[in-house]
Each structure stands twice: as structure tokens, then as C-alpha cells.
Amino acid sequence: MLDTLLPLNAPNTFAGNPIDRGERFRNDPDKIAEFMESPAAQFVVFHRLKPFLTSGDIAHVQWLSRAAVKDQISLGATWVFLGLLNDAPHFAVDISRLRDPENNGPLAGLGVFLDMRASAGQLDPQEAGILAQGKALIDWHNRHQFCAVCGHETEMQQAGAARHCTNERCKAQHFPRTDPVAIMLAIHEDKCLLGRQSMFPPKMFSALAGFLEPGETFEDCVRREVWEEAGIEVGEVRYHSNQPWPFPASLMIGCHAEALTTEIDTSSDELEEAQWFDKDFVKAALSGKRSDELWMPPPFAIAHQLIRSWALS
Questions:
Q1: What pLDDT score does 136 carry?
Q2: Domain of 107?
């Protein structure tokens, strides 16, 4: 029922990362080495971008000691310094080269590797942001082994916060990037606009969304995307909240948008279908009473929170 849902001011999943990212230590290799050897050091491991977690209704990170990961680090596994939490250094390590790590070696019997998108609703809220940070950084390092300027090999710098080109004639520096995405709920009087893509499960509708383009504000992006996807003109845009989305590394900028027109046009083929839904119908769908007619995005998605905050306002 509605009263069992998260409070309206609940942070979005993957937001609220409690880590002190320790920027002041990144250029001090001796300090980072000291952190890695510290008895207090904690390591989260990823296998093919799946984090190692305890299983249960709430999935927690199975933090490991240096002893459990030292062999992989010595063999060249990608690792990144995440920062400090309760004065303890925290790291993420990619152990993708291992076969069946859950059942062999030092990890056997300690936990399971879970897909983050599939298990997002189970993640401990405090740890979800840390996992988003670790997954996005490891994925970025894996994708940027070569320089985008000259094509030469790159190597990690700043304890995982950068890479630099090893070509002496180039020496370009590369830093992790986050791709901004505007996600919006267009509203007209007591109705909201929801769309569906062909890949969605039957009856699932969601807020519209799209990547920001060069030289564009997120308000401009909202107006452009709603027009391109549904043929609806938008006026005022109001910021709601944002959500790190580590698939692979986006920032979802959530907005409510006032629609100036109501006639839907999906001829651009970006959406399979779009509809206006009235508030009472959406409330019923959020409570599960309309699941055979309308299926909402899950609560861990910012789209759900955009829809819910409007419906309950």
C-alpha cells in the first residue's frame, strides 16, 4: 500500500555515498601503499562488474581484508582507492580474471556476486553509493586502456582517479567522466505523461529520458527530449533530485515539466507508445491495484520517485 512506500524525502538509490574520497592522498603513492597494507583496510571485489555481497533481504558488501585480495593485486588486477570511511581506507578490486571465484580460493562460501541492476532494490542504502563509485571506476579503467588522443597505452595514476598516456610525445591525462541524463515527468493539470520502449515488460510505462547534448542545459534537454519522443511542448521545468546511475556511469537529473500541449506524436520511433495517465490511476498503480493495467518502474529508479512525488503531492 502507499503508506508502506519510502518517505517522499528518501534519497535515491546510489545517492548518499558516505565515503570521504580522500583526494588529498591520491598523489601520495607512499600513503596509498600504507593504506593498502593497513590492517584496517577494506576491499570490495568485483567480478565482471558484479560486486561480492552477502545474500539476504538486504544485500551488504562482503568487505575483505588485504590478505584475501593480495594475490590478485600482485597479478595486476585493476584496483582503485575509494576513500576513507570511519578512518579506514576502502578500495575496489577487479578480479574478473578468476574463474568461478565464489566457489574457489579465499572467497569460497563468503558471499555471492550479484548483478547491481538486478539487485538494486536489495542493496544496503549506505553501501549502494559506494558500490556505484567502485563499479563505475573499474568499468572506466577497463574501457580506457588506450589513449583517446594518440592510441598509445595508458596507465593508472592518482590511485585510480586518473590515467595518463605513456607515449612521451603525448602524455595526455584522462579522467573518469559521468554522462548527464535528463529524466522528466511531463505534467498537464492532473495528468502525467509516461512512455514505454519496446524492450520494456508488458504494461510497463516510465518517465521519458535522454542524454544531454553539447552546449545544452538540462532544462533545454528536458524540452527537447519530450518534443522529440512524444511531440509535446514543454514550458517550465522544475528540478526534483538526481541519482548516480552506474550503468555504466551516468547521472540522472530528475525534473518535473509543465506540458503546454497534450497531443501525443510518437512517429519518431523513439517510443513504442506514450499515454497521459490521471493522478488517481497512477496512485492506484503505485499501490499495486492496477498492476494488470500499468506497471511502474521499481522504487530504486528515480523515475519511480518522480512519479510518486507528483502523485502524492
A1: 97
A2: 2-143
